[in-house]
Design a protein that fits this description.
Layout: H1 5-16, H2 20-27, H3 49-60, H4 64-75, H5 78-81, H6 85-101, H7 104-117, H8 126-138
Helix pairs in contact: 1-2, 1-3, 2-3, 3-4, 3-6, 4-6, 6-7, 6-8, 7-8
Length: 139
């Protein structure tokens, strides 16, 4: 709780308030534990949530390279993420990070990976519509 769950929740709140540096500071406590599996909930709280929120904070701070690095950690560790939604969402966020960096080819690939994972999703899901719109701007 002290080194994963609570720092991540505090960081997500900071991201939503538009305070990326506060989020990054909160997540420092989680760094040593972020590549493992926690037992904080019956839902299988994954230790990669701090990584995801750190990536969000970097995106908010317009630090694309750092954001891409964080989201790539998630993409590279499907065995930890299993079927958690951040596994698919990390592809979308990776696309956003690459777009921020001006790396259009990599961004298009990441968006396509996300859309492939969500190909059977309800077309009216807001994040899916947003991802399609963002991808269209890259073409």
């Amino acid at each position: 709780m002290q080194f994963n769950f609570l720092p991540t929740l505090r960081a997500e709140l900071a991201v939503r308030r538009g305070k990326p540096s506060e989020a990054l500071e909160s997540l420092r406590a989680a760094t040593p534990y972020e590549l493992g599996q926690t037992t904080a909930s019956i839902y299988g709280w994954t230790a990669l949530y701090p990584v995801y929120v750190r990536g969000e904070a970097y995106l908010l701070a317009h630090r694309g390279a750092e954001a891409a690095s964080e989201f790539q950690k998630i993409v590279d560790r499907r065995g930890i993420v299993v079927s958690d939604p951040i596994g698919a969402l990390a592809h979308l966020q990776l696309g956003r990070a690459f777009a921020l960096l001006g790396e259009k080819a990599k961004a298009r690939t990441a968006y396509q990976d996300f859309l492939e994972l969500w190909k059977d999703a309800d077309a009216d899901i807001p994040i899916l519509r947003q991802a399609k719109a963002e991808q269209a701007k890259l073409l």
